[in-house]
Specification:
The protein is of the alpha+beta class and about 90 residues long. The chain contains 2 helices and 7 strands; from the N terminus they run βαββαββββ. The chain has one domain (about 1-90): Alpha-Beta Plaits (2-Layer Sandwich), CATH 3.30.70.240. The strands form 2 sheets. The protein has a 5-stranded antiparallel beta sheet with strand order 2-3-1-4-5, with helices on one face. The chain has a two-stranded antiparallel ribbon with strand order 6-7. A hairpin with a 2-residue loop joins β2 (about 20-25) and β3 (about 30).
C-alpha cells in the first residue's frame, strides 16, 4: 500500500497520480499498487515534484516496522527517526 500526502502538487503530477490512486481528499492519494509499481511512482514524484510541494509518502514494506516514509521538500509535519523508527512529529496545542 502507498499513501501520498502533499501540501500542493503541480497539476500535471496530480492528474498523473489519479491513474494509480484514489484521492479521498485534495492532495491525499491512496493505492494498493505492487511494490515495483510503487517504486516507479515514488521515482516519478521525486523527479517531478518541486520541494515546495511538501510531499510525504508512506510505503508498505516487508521488514519491521512494516512501512517506510519518504519526504520531498518540507511537509507541514516533519519526520524524525528514533531508534531506527521513522515517526511524524505531532505538536500539542494546549
Amino acid at each position: 500500500m502507498v499513501v501520498v500526502l502533499a501540501n500542493e502538487l503541480p497539476p500535471a503530477v496530480r492528474g498523473r497520480m489519479k491513474l494509480w490512486f484514489i484521492e479521498p481528499r485534495a492532495n491525499v492519494f491512496v493505492s494498493g499498487i505492487k511494490d515495483s509499481v510503487a517504486q516507479t511512482v515514488v521515482d516519478y514524484l521525486v523527479k517531478y515534484c518541486p520541494s515546495e510541494a511538501g510531499v510525504l509518502i508512506f510505503m508498505s514494506q516487508t521488514k519491521a516496522p512494516g512501512y517506510r516514509i519518504i519526504t520531498i521538500g518540507a511537509p507541514r509535519k516533519p519526520k524524525v527517526e528514533l531508534s531506527g523508527l521513522q515517526l511524524i512529529v505531532e505538536t500539542l496545542n494546549l
